Amino acid sequence: MNHTSLLINYGEGLLLTDPWHDTPAFGKWLPVPPPFMHPVYLTALAKNNESNFNILISNPDDDRCDDNFLKFFPKNINIIIPKNESPWFRRRIERLGFNNIVEIGKRQKFSNIDFRTHINGAVSIETNDALIIHSNKNNTFSEECMVSIDNHIQDYKSRTEYLKHDSSKILLATEINPSQNDYPNTYSDYDDEEKCEVFLTNFINKLFISTINMGIRNLLPYGGHDNYHINNKKTGGHKDLSFYREIAKEHLEKKINLIEILPGDKYDFKKVTPLFSDFKYRHEDLEIKSKEYYE
Fold first, then answer.
1. Among 44, 63, 69, 184, which residue has the least CB neighbours within 10 Å?
2. How far apart are CA 75 and CA 79, in angstroms?
């Protein structure tokens, strides 16, 4: 959909992750490129599939949990959130009027999906025929997190191999935007070459190593299109996957299947296709659209 928001069709229902439309998060961030679909499309899907429409909100940050957007959805759909020591996350959702709030622990099955939560907001989503690791806040993986994710991967492989199903449908969807806390994009002490060579190169190679160490081949980078309200600063914008391939070490890049899904695309573990035929974002338009969106 945009940023770290995916619409997952698992056969028996729909799961929307981290909805964020166009409300500025933290007063300065917007999703770039803009959302491909009008909110009415998603809310109509929710209304027509109420009991089978689920929204997963992996953390309460404003760029994952857009209150203004959520208000449009029917109040009887399922809102799934990680169980938190603080009651504030749940209360925030309750104040929006939702009736079916499901708090998931480290391992919990709901709506025929096996959810497992990991540190730093990562959630793995196991459907009947795929395993998706939704990691919108975790772009560097600690050993503890990798072990936790790998445990789910091994369980998934054992189950699918026992049933003689395809066990290769494993996808890591992770935020590839390394500019947490605006670093290094808004720091004037670094020129563009230093930002790329010193920071981005190290970041991308570490991400690839973590992915390989967890035994994952399919990597979907998302959330790398955000931008900032900073005057007179050159800020981060859209980069296609060729940029990351060029700065990655060749022996690592060969072991990763980088999947590029722009808003308006769909992926079925075989290929990426546009959801609405030829009507989609094009690479050459993304930077222009991003700039116009902010202006």
1. 44
2. 9
